[in-house]
Design brief:
By secondary structure, the protein is mostly helical. The protein contains seven helices and two strands. A two-stranded antiparallel sheet has the order 1-2. It is elongated and about 60 Å long. The mean pLDDT is 85.
Length: 171
Amino acid sequence: MLKGMCRERNLQVTGAKYDLVLRILHCDNDSTPEGATLKRAATDVVSTVDAVSGEVVEKRVPKKRKKAAPSASRIYTRVEKKIEAVKQKKYQSHWGSKTHSTEVYDLVATILSNDVVRSEEDYLNEDPRFALSLAEAACTSLSDNFHIMQRPGYDDDGGWSIIDSELKTIA
């Protein structure tokens, strides 16, 4: 509710409840403490012409964050953390231990599909060595940490076959 109110006023949404309430109050009362500035969200001004009156209307629209470019080290760490998540409570039951390996294989398959083969930047055609380094990082992390997995043979969703087909596409 507070975050929604901050969004309506184009204020920064992060922080403690106290800070959010202060931002809203300062915005509504046009007052800020001496020497302080009101934290506004990052916005762009978009100008449009009103069809009825013909006047130019300026509207503040929140900026969209660009997706960070993938890196081999971050991909290696993502897969490694997913494999090490086997220590979490949700994977300690009989059923949970069976789902862990499936989730790991799905993560590797998703990385290969979305970040390498079907990326918006088309790394496979534009920079094949970079695409290969990303795929290598995901597969190396899987093989380096394979011994940590409790039930590596379980693959309910066919993650291995997706990994296999994506690696064939890359090669």
